């Protein structure tokens, strides 16, 4: 199997991409290969320390969903523009930059199966490397025109606002679930929305199609996080590929937990456990068992199904084609992976 073909297979496994159309497969595979080359060229630095830190997460891989969606959105336009590849690389650089900063805030030691930059070097290097990637993403987007530059600047603002909302928490009287959904829409959905906007805009898609791709991106990005929330509780480690109860251990209250806490019928023991980080393995196991029996998990699944339905509704505005089918398959996958 070629490198490009392997990349598509990885995407099928990680984001449920189902594509039977061979021309679309080849186009996406070629586009992703171009994105990978551009990523490596862009983060290259003559300063060894800068280059090593910047290339670290690029080489660690990842889903590459944001550039993939940019390329898919580019299929709805009237022209095949190299600018779509540039935009795809730029949104991935922005995503990588946020990961460097997130690892500092979360005091993470691992990222994508590799040692995090803050653990391998230190927090200062990680923060500066994230800034370095933001700078290069801005440089790439600057070549795409003033509209694209404005859009990426607005997206930076959304990302930071979402992080600030999460850090500060809901204000007095604010609904915790609504607050959480707003946070993940800004932290995750906003950049995926921009991916769709860039792909459609830079391939000269119709304005109504660009807006539909943007709305789909925000909804599906939020759904990805909800899906991960459910899997972190519901799936055994052997199935999910990561340690169970990660959010519990970090003291992060995800959607199933918030729903459980909002239900007056929830087991008081679960409420007690969710009052802070759960660090002991036995207590994590106990909390997971109680969460699986709570109403919170099923309510989160129902919310996920609703987001998937809304995402598919946005796609209905797009012309029928293999690219639209591929987007629909991702929406279906996010629900299926949590069952």
Automatic annotation (TrEMBL):
<dbReference type="InterPro" id="IPR000092">
    <property type="entry name" value="Polyprenyl_synt"/>
</dbReference>
<protein>
    <submittedName>
        <fullName>Polyprenyl synthetase family protein</fullName>
    </submittedName>
</protein>
<keyword id="KW-0808">Transferase</keyword>
<dbReference type="Pfam" id="PF00348">
    <property type="entry name" value="polyprenyl_synt"/>
</dbReference>
<keyword id="KW-0479">Metal-binding</keyword>
<dbReference type="InterPro" id="IPR033749">
    <property type="entry name" value="Polyprenyl_synt_CS"/>
</dbReference>
<keyword id="KW-0460">Magnesium</keyword>
<comment type="similarity">
    <text>Belongs to the FPP/GGPP synthase family.</text>
</comment>
<dbReference type="InterPro" id="IPR008949">
    <property type="entry name" value="Isoprenoid_synthase_dom_sf"/>
</dbReference>
């Amino acid at each position: 199997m070629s490198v490009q073909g392997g990349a598509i297979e990885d995407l099928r496994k990680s984001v449920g991409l189902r594509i039977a159309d061979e021309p679309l497969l080849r186009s996406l595979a070629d586009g992703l290969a171009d994105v990978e080359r551009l990523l490596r060229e862009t983060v290259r630095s003559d300063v060894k320390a800068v280059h090593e830190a910047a290339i670290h997460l690029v080489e660690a891989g990842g889903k590459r969903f944001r550039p993939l969606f940019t390329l898919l959105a580019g299929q709805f336009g009237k022209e095949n523009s190299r600018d779509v590849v540039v935009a795809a690389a730029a949104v991935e650089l922005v995503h990588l930059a946020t990961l460097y900063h997130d690892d500092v805030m979360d005091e993470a030691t691992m990222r994508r199966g590799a040692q995090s930059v803050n653990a391998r070097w230190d927090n200062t290097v990680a923060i500066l490397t994230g800034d370095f990637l933001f700078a290069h993403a801005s440089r790439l987007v600057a070549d795409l025109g003033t509209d694209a530059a404005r859009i990426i600047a607005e997206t930076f603002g959304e990302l930071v606002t979402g992080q600030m909302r999460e850090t500060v928490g809901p204000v007095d009287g604010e609904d915790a679930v609504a607050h959480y959904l707003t946070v993940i829409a800004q932290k995750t959905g906003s950049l995926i929305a921009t991916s769709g906007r860039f792909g459609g805009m830079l391939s000269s898609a119709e304005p109504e199609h660009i807006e539909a791709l943007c709305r789909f991106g925000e909804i599906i990005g939020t759904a990805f996080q909800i899906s991960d929330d459910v899997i972190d509780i519901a799936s055994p480690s052997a199935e999910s590929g990561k340690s169970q109860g990660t959010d519990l251990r970090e003291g992060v209250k995800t959607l199933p937990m918030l729903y459980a806490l909002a239900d007056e019928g929830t087991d008081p023991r679960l409420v007690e456990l969710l009052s802070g980080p759960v660090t002991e393995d036995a207590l994590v196991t106990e909390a997971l068992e109680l969460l699986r029996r709570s109403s919170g998990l099923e309510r989160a699944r129902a919310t996920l199904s609703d987001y998937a339905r809304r995402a598919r509704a946005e796609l209905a505005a797009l012309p029928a084609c293999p690219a639209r089918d591929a987007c629909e398959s991702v929406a279906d996958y996010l629900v299926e992976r949590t069952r």
